[in-house]
Specification:
Shape: globular
Number of strands: 32
Bound molecules: alpha-D-galactopyranuronic acid
Strand content: 25-35%
Helix content: 10-25%
Distance between the termini: 42 Å
Length: about 575
């Protein structure tokens, strides 16, 4: 069951065995094959470790864990990149083909308590085997167990709580929540449940109908303080089955709505001010620490943000926990980057996309910080071939979680065919950066282009839908300034972001902005990187070490001028 503190796997050693296997065919591997073992920490991206930096191929991680004899268990993987096959006691249990989505491996009961876990990972691009990852994505795709692995021992007999989903909507003022208890094992058609919110007395619910394995309850929290970025009040819900299986989730009382062309949080119109953020740091690549995530959230808050877009994949649960606790609204999306027709023609891609979308919602649905579900960044949304995937994705998200808004980031503002599916229209726009060869003053392109897009959207029948600028940015190389203030200088970047913020925050048709990007991040190398100096996407307002560029102060000025009155921008340490 989802719990709010990550429970690391109970391995006997801190480090796991690791071996880089190189170009072997994954199917030729067996845990019985001999390997030359090293020791590495988990989580880790093996190709971010100095000994293996930049390598592509197969690799294997191995450890031991204990489960009381006779009990089944679940291994819950935060993310393994890009492809993996998980073996328990030498037996292949699951293949998984999305490097950023959480997944579960069922561990069958055994006579012995000590068990062996082997994870074969592979970071090679292979469209047939791993169609969700393609080589042209503008961020470096690593290999390894990049997020925490946790273990959950299941009851020896009877049913168990698979996970608990809290749904908060129009009842937020009264403290009313809908709770869905997803059951596993032989829980039966009626279950007895005990619930407790915060430190309130426990409540018993006899013979709750578990239709299709889901028992639904409506509960009222005594403490009705709402959750908001300015006051992120969290509540705890504990749920237990009569056989003692139990767990806790956190939730917040808040409602998000899209109406009259605006986004409303707890009944008040809200302007989103934020950044896109990749989960990435130079030390460990995508395997970041809680401290690094914490520092990023603090920097975002210092910049005056109330919003972050988790580009371009499901988020680390620890990051979402921080957003819940520190008060940052989140757009979480399923993995996607600019896919075109060949991707949508792949049955394996559809199956993997479906599985990971569900896994994202299952893992993240209780975070009050998440207000928007997104999917498929910059896919071919001006074309017919995305229709099936877009319609199915939206229907799935609405069925799984009617309490949040749905969006996708479009790069086809004037020709997009699917705005009707979204609650919030997200536009990725780069006027004054891409495609302005020969233009004398590219900054002057920004505001008129925004207006043209807004007018097009209103004219084509979507006047009631809120619009946000889901990406805009320019490259600024850290430390690069010169008298021309030309492209790639910190100065042009700062002026660019200022112009974008002023229009997006000042134009009443806009509900906000997510700047591209929070920090510089490693991207594709070799020939792919000709437009990416250093093989980095340098559009960060901070560089990769989180050193602020000129744009930092400028954006802070824009966002803080627009700060909600109850939310003060601050500058810790006088920065
Ligand atoms: C796109 C894309 C981003 C990044 C950006 C850029 O909008 O969604 O991931 O690649 O362009 O820097 O060009």
């Amino acid at each position: 069951m989802v719990n709010y503190s990550p429970r690391p796997i109970t391995a006997p050693t801190v480090l796991w065995d690791f071996a880089f296997l190189g170009k072997i065919a994954p199917d030729s591997y067996s845990p019985a094959s001999p390997s030359a073992w090293e020791r590495v920490p988990v989580p880790s991206a093996f190709d971010a470790l100095p000994d293996h930096a930049g390598k592509r191929g197969a690799a294997v991680y191995r450890t031991r864990f204990t489960v009381p004899a006779g009990h089944g268990a679940r291994l819950e993987f935060g993310a393994v990149s890009m492809w993996c096959r998980v073996f328990v006691d030498g037996v292949p249990m699951k293949d998984h083909a999305c490097g950023y989505a959480p997944f579960i491996v069922e561990v069958p009961a055994a006579q012995q308590a000590e068990r062996e876990l082997v994870v074969l990972v592979d970071n090679r691009y292979d469209f047939d085997r791993v169609p969700m990852h393609e080589e042209y994505f503008d961020f470096y795709q690593y290999g390894g167990i990049i997020r925490p692995v946790s273990l959950r021992v299941l009851p020896a007999e009877g049913g168990f709580i698979d996970h608990v989903q809290t749904l908060v909507g129009e009842g937020w003022r009264e403290g009313r929540i809908m709770v869905k208890v997803w059951l596993g094992g032989n829980a039966g058609e009626r279950v007895a449940l005990t619930t407790r919110i915060d430190a309130e007395p426990a409540a018993t619910h006899e013979a709750v109908v578990a239709a299709d394995g889901v028992a639904t309850l409506t509960l009222i929290a005594a403490d009705k303080r709402p959750w908001s970025p300015a006051s992120p009040v969290l509540h705890a819900l504990h749920v237990a089955l009569s056989n003692g299986d139990e767990g806790s989730v956190r939730f917040g009382l808040r409602q998000v709505e899209a109406r009259a062309g605006a986004i409303w949080l707890n009944g008040e119109k809200i302007l989103l001010k934020g950044y896109n953020r990749h989960e990435w740091h130079p030390t460990g690549g995508p395997a970041t620490s809680l401290l690094e995530m914490f520092n990023d959230v603090k920097l975002l808050k210092d910049l005056g943000c109330n919003f972050v877009r988790g580009s371009h994949y499901p988020q680390d649960q620890r990051f979402l926990d921080l957003c819940d606790e520190l008060g940052l609204l989140v757009w979480e999306e399923n993995l996607g980057w600019g896919q075109r027709e060949n991707t949508f023609a792949s049955a394996k891609w559809h199956a993997d996309h479906r599985e990971t979308l569900r896994a994202m919602v299952r893992a993240s649905a209780n975070h009050p910080s998440i207000i928007l579900w997104g999917f498929l960044n910059e896919a071919g949304s001006d074309q017919e071939y995305v229709r099936e995937a877009f319609e199915e994705t939206v229907a799935t998200l609405r069925a799984l979680d009617p309490s949040r808004l749905i969006t996708y980031a479009s790069m086809f503002a004037l020709t997009d065919r699917y705005y009707h599916l979204a609650d919030v229209i997200g536009l990725n726009l780069y006027p004054g950066w891409y495609g302005c060869e020969g233009v004398e003053n590219p900054l002057e392109l920004i505001a008129p282009h925004f207006r043209k897009c807004f007018e097009h959207i209103d004219r084509t029948g979507f006047v009631d839908k809120p619009i946000i600028i889901s990406e805009i940015g320019a490259e600024g190389l850290y430390g690069w300034r010169d008298a021309h203030n030309d492209f790639f200088t910190e100065t042009y970047q700062a002026a660019y972001l200022k112009a974008a913020c002023e229009e997006a925050l000042g134009n009443p048709r806009s509900s906000g902005i997510a700047l591209w990007h929070f920090s510089d991040v490693r991207t594709y190398g070799g020939g792919w990187s000709l437009k990416r100096p250093r093989a980095f996407n340098n559009k960060g307002t901070l560089d990769e070490y989180r050193r602020p560029k000129e744009a930092y102060r400028v954006v802070q000025g824009c966002f803080c001028r627009k700060a909600e009155s109850e939310e003060k921008c601050h500058s810790p340490g006088g920065t």
